[in-house]
Amino acid sequence: MDSKRTYNYQTKLFWIVNVFYWMLVFVFVTIQYSREREYKVGVLDAKLQAYNQVILREYRENGNFNDKLLNSYFHDESVRVTVIDHSGNVLFDNSVDSLANHRDRREFVGALRDGHSYTIRRLSQSNNQEYFYSATAGNNVVVRTALPYDVNLANILKGELEYIWVVIGIAAIINIILYFAIGRIGSEVKKLQTFAELAATGNIDDYDVSVFSDDELGQVSKMIVKMYLDLKRISVERDKSMAEAIFEEKEKIRIKHQLTSNINHELKTPVQAISGCFETVLNNNLNEETRTRLLQTGYANALRLTNLLGDVTLITRITDDRESLPMTEVDINEVINNIRAEVDGYGIDKKMRINVDMPESVIVKGNRQLIDAIFRNLVNNAVAYSGGRDIFIAVTDEDEFYKFDFYDNGTGVEPQHLPHIFERFYRIDTGRSRKNGGTGLGLSIVRNAVAFHGGEIEARNRRFAGLEFLFSLHK
User: Fold this and answer.
1) Residue 146 and residue 58 in contact, taking contact as beta carbons nearer than 8 Å
2) DSSP string of 42-105?
3) Is this structure's pTM higher than 0.85?
4) Which of 373, 367, 377, 379 is nearest to 330 (CA)?
């Protein structure tokens, strides 16, 4: 099977330019050759016109012309002289004795019309020889002189071949220079082609634009590469942002579904407990002690249900309705002092000391409810599950953040649970957590509230005892 032959850009451009270039050279040489030939014809015609004027002057003075007069004026025997009246009758000819009427000869007709005329090459009907004719019109006659159109005259009238060869030589040199100039352009195009091939494979992250020259074409090539790289970077960033947005949206949907499922599961226990307690009280004749115990159980589950709904509402606002949360200046000292007063009001079995090491004024711009939820949930988590007697809160002031170190001296958490304690509804000890009234959302609220204020949080076991939370809040 025949395959179609392809040519690169440099070859195509060279041949296209080359064809037009040599066409231009050909037209130039042809015009110059024609102009040179016309110049030589004009010189020869002027010479013969001078002969004609001499003969016309003699004819005006003497009324005739003969061989004797011709020999006295002209020594060139090759010159043919003919005198013709305005009717075309030949009055004198030094080469032929008897001639037919000349009224249809081109040079004769042109001389009568314009005063003088010439014919470069015409075959004489009298002696079958080719001549160069030049005719001049007088008052009564037309004088025509002619030279035989032989090899010598043809060589005299043709253009100078040396000039043509010089022009062709110069044109060839320019053609060679043109080849290398086009080669340089082709080289830049080849570099662009290489870049395009690399771009198609995606291997252009570290493309070196210095391979292009510093001329206009090289600058254009560099701009093309730069624009492509910028567009690729923007496209990658856009795709990444879209992927992150899609992932975030899917994650929100997943979390909502998970939250809904977990809420349904968490609501069943207190609702069933409340329903069971009330049903037992209403349908049975119970003694006062049993009746009071059932009502207390129902009330405790009602409180747990209230806490759960409150936590769900809060965490939903953090994740889905951030703009509605008001921002004010919040005094962290005041928040912690309020929580400390509440802890002091707990029963003896749950009383813990809160030890604070922080500056007198720690002010952040944030949401008071969320900041309160951070410290309240951490304190409640320590009181309910740590088994310790002391809580420690230390604050470090940095340029843009306050760094908080919150820890207790309790039992800590087993290492396998640490990565999951901030997950929603994650419980280390399910039975104990429900007994203490926990909703499983406290530490998840803490993490989201810290993130809302531009900070990060991590949990770790202390070396000797207790669980430690390290987090930051943007000032």
Assistant:
1) no
2) HHHHHHHHHHHHHHHHHHHHHS---HHHHHHH---TT-EEEEEETTS-EEEESS-SS----TT-
3) no
4) 367
Question: Using one digit for the tens of pLDDT, what is the confidence trace for 175-211?
Answer: 788 777 776 776 777 767 677 766 666 666 666 666 6
The model's pLDDT over 120-163, given as tens digits with 9 standing for 90+, comes to 888 887 788 899 999 999 888 999 999 888 888 877 777 666 77
Q: Nearest CA to 321 among 409, 272, 252?
A: 252
- Is pLDDT at 1 greater than 50 in this prediction? no
Number of other CB atoms surrounding residue 412 within 10 Å: 23
Contact yes or no for 328/368 (Cβ under 8 A):
yes
Are the CB atoms for 80 and 70 separated by under 8 Å? no
Angle between helices 161-201 and 216-283 (to 10 degrees): 10
Query: At 346, is the pLDDT very low, low, confident or very high (cuts 50, 70, 90)?
Result: low
Paired residues of 133 in beta bridges: 119, 146
Among 336, 316, 317, 321, CA closest to 402: 336
Of 392, 417, 434, whose CA–CA distance to 300 is shortest?
434
Cα 88 to Cα 112, 115, 140, 141, 182: the distances in Å are 10, 15, 11, 9, 64
> What is the Cα–Cα distance from 226 to 217, expressed in whole angstroms?
14
Q: What is the DSSP string of 303-364?
A: HHHHHHHHHHHHHHHHHH-GGGS--EEEEHHHHHHHHHHHHHTS-GGG--EEEEE--S--EE
